[in-house]
Design brief:
alpha+beta; globular
Length: 98
């Protein structure tokens, strides 16, 4: 089952094509939109496509009140996504967090 999604979160446009051949699994849920956007941007910068059923179903705002904003990835990307999120943060040039 193929699906195409377009939307905007906080002024950030996105377009997703999902071929339906992969199973989606929940990686994390977030209470804040900002945290969700940062993690999604990090994963997508590493080539991992992210999905948010709360956005696609129109339950994004309600999702924040009922368990958070859900971030999903393809099953085959789950281990890599967890490794990226579990990796220590890099430091700035003076040893300060970025």
């Amino acid at each position: 089952m193929a699906a195409r999604f377009r939307g905007t979160i906080s002024g950030v446009n996105f377009h997703v094509n999902f071929d339906g051949d992969s199973e989606l699994v929940t990686l994390a849920s977030f209470a804040s939109e900002q945290e969700f956007l940062v993690v999604r941007a990090l994963l997508e910068s590493e080539g991992i496509e992210c999905f948010c059923p709360n956005v696609y179903s129109g339950l994004y705002t309600e999702g924040r009140r009922h368990g958070g904003i859900t971030l999903q990835v393809r099953q085959e990307d789950l281990a890599q996504a967890r490794a990226i999120l579990d990796a220590p943060c890099e430091s700035g040039s003076e040893g300060e967090p970025l």
